[in-house]
Amino acid sequence: MLVFFYDKTFEGLLTAVFDAYSRKTFPDRLLGEGDIPPLFMEDSYTVLTQEDKSMRVWTALEKKLSKQACNMITYAWLSEEEGCDDLLFRYMRKTIDSKVSIETNFGDKDVLELHQIARKVSHEGHYLEMFVRFQKAADDIFFAPVAPVYNALPIVINHFSDRFSDQKWVIYDTKRRYGYFYDLHTASEITLEDDNHLLSGKLDESLMAEDEKLFQELWKGYFKAMTIKERINLRLQRQHMPKRFWKYLTEKQ
Question: Which part of the chain is the DUF4130 domain (predicted)?
Answer without folding.
Answer: 85-251
